[in-house]
TrEMBL record:
PANTHER family: RNA POLYMERASE ECF-TYPE SIGMA FACTO, RNA POLYMERASE SIGMA FACTOR. The lineage of its organism: Bacteria, Bacillati, Bacillota, Bacilli, Bacillales. This is Sigma-70 family RNA polymerase sigma factor. SUPFAM superfamilies: Sigma2 domain of RNA polymerase sigma factors (SSF88946), Sigma3 and sigma4 domains of RNA polymerase sigma factors (SSF88659). It comes from the Bacteria. It comes from Anoxybacteroides rupiense.
Length: 187
C-alpha cells in the first residue's frame, strides 16, 4: 500500500478496519503487519524488557482487535497507541509490584536473621562471663568447644592431648555445669 498523499493512510486504515469488522482475516493480517513493529517499539519504550515487550505487544494486538467495535474513526494510530501505552504501564506496574513484594518478603527474613545473630551474640557473651566461674581445667575445654566452635580434633591438637581425652574433659565439664548452673541462669 503506497502512500501518495497526506491522509491516505488514515483512509486505508478505515477501509481495513471496516473489512476486519466484517470478518476479513486478510485485512486483519494487513493491519497487524502494518502496526506490529510500531506497537512493539511503543511498548518496549515503557517496559524496557525484550521478552515482556513481545508478550505485551501480542496482548495489545488482541485488545485492539477485541475493541475495534468501539473505534470511532478519530485517528487509528493515536487510538492504538493509547491502548499500547496503557497496557505497557500496567505490565510495568505489575512487574514493579512483584519486585517490591519479593523484597518485602525477604526483609522480615533479614530482620529475623539479624535478630537471631544479636541474640546469639548476647548469649555467647553471657556464657563467656559465666565461664569465669568454671574451674580452670574445664574452662579451657568449654571455651574452645562452645565459644570458638572448634572440633574435638582441633582441640586435641592444640592442647597436645588425645581426642578421647577431649571427650572425657567435655563430659566432666558438662556434668559440672549441670550441677552448678540452672537453666534459668541464662535468661
Amino acid at each position: 500500500m503506497k502512500k501518495d498523499r497526506k491522509g491516505e493512510s488514515g483512509i486505508q486504515d478505515d477501509v481495513l478496519i471496516d473489512k476486519v469488522q466484517n470478518g476479513d482475516e486478510h485485512a486483519l493480517r494487513m493491519l497487524i503487519e502494518k502496526y506490529r513493529d510500531y506497537l512493539y517499539k511503543t511498548v518496549y519504550s515503557i517496559i524496557r524488557h525484550e521478552k515482556d515487550a513481545e508478550d505485551a505487544t501480542q496482548e495489545v494486538l488482541v485488545r485492539i482487535f477485541l475493541s475495534l467495535s468501539q473505534y470511532q474513526s478519530q485517528g487509528f494510530k493515536a487510538w492504538i497507541t493509547r491502548i499500547a501505552v496503557n497496557y505497557a504501564i500496567d505490565v510495568k506496574r505489575k512487574r514493579e509490584r512483584k519486585r517490591e513484594e519479593a523484597l518485602e518478603a525477604t526483609e522480615p527474613e533479614a530482620a529475623e536473621n539479624v535478630e537471631q545473630l544479636v541474640i546469639k551474640k548476647a548469649e555467647k557473651e553471657q556464657v563467656r562471663r559465666r565461664l569465669e566461674e568454671i574451674p580452670p581445667s574445664y574452662r579451657e575445654i568449654i571455651y574452645a568447644y562452645y565459644i570458638e566452635e572448634k572440633s574435638y580434633q582441633q582441640i586435641a591438637k592444640e592442647q597436645n592431648i588425645a581426642v578421647k581425652t577431649v571427650e572425657t574433659k567435655l563430659y566432666r565439664a558438662r556434668n559440672w555445669l549441670r550441677k552448678h548452673w540452672k537453666e534459668g541462669d541464662f535468661q
